[in-house]
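Morning, I've got a small favour to ask if you have a moment. It would help a lot if you went through both lines with me. Thanks so much in advance, here it is.

***
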Amino acid sequence: MEQVRNSKEKIIAVKDLSVTLGEVEVLKDISFEISKSSFTGIIGPNGAGKSTLIKAILGFIDYEGMVVLDGTVGYVPQLSSFNREFPMNVYDFVRLPIRREKNWKEKVDSILNEVGLEGFGIKLVGKLSGGEFQRAALARALISKPDILILDEPEAGVDQMGKAKFYDLLNSLKQEENITILMVSHDIGLIFEKCDNVMCLNKTLHCHGPTESMSIEDIKKTFGEFDIWIRSDDHYEVEHEHHEHQTHSEARNDRKQRDTNGHNK
């Protein structure tokens, strides 16, 4: 594999990237470029290779092909990968990348304020809500002032309002700090609303372009074998298990029935 830095054109460039784990070809011939200060969302079904692509870009796993990174990188892995039961406060959690610096507290206080966690430094990580922990993980990724921010399903386990606020925070960072953002997500609605570009991945790259030039219908055609359902006005998510789709359909029917019963009383 070849990993190169200092490209003059794009801040991220991937060419002919393939990944084989054991005897399984997880990714095949992936090529794309990402411009500086853009916000790109990666979507695709479970098992599509989204997290594998992120790990290959970061150099965590072996791959064939070439990855070009023109800048430093901050990384927010899936929140489930963190052990929140470990007795660590927010200060210690966020300062890990700069723990040897003498003025770490000033930097941590500044970044906590930036992500909306002012005054949370001495609070235990295990006591944070899903949304608070999400922002703490973001603060840790940002503490070293990276040029590129890579996130792997950071909104998992966070309610819809928390997701929207988190996307707004990322957009502010992109605009104010000129950070380039690459994020894996299942939330198609927010990807189309908040991101500049979308990548559709399922072992190979099926599409990559500006969100304004694509539509939900395009995604339906790309992933037609998966259930796509409407959670609210103009909001879609890809669901990968038929029983999940049934569960949500049943829940909607139950709500409609309760509303009808309440109206008839």
In short: The first strand starts at residue 2 and ends at 5. The two ends are 68 Å apart (CA to CA). The CA atoms of residues 136 and 211 lie 28 Å apart. The chain is about 35% helix and 30% strand.
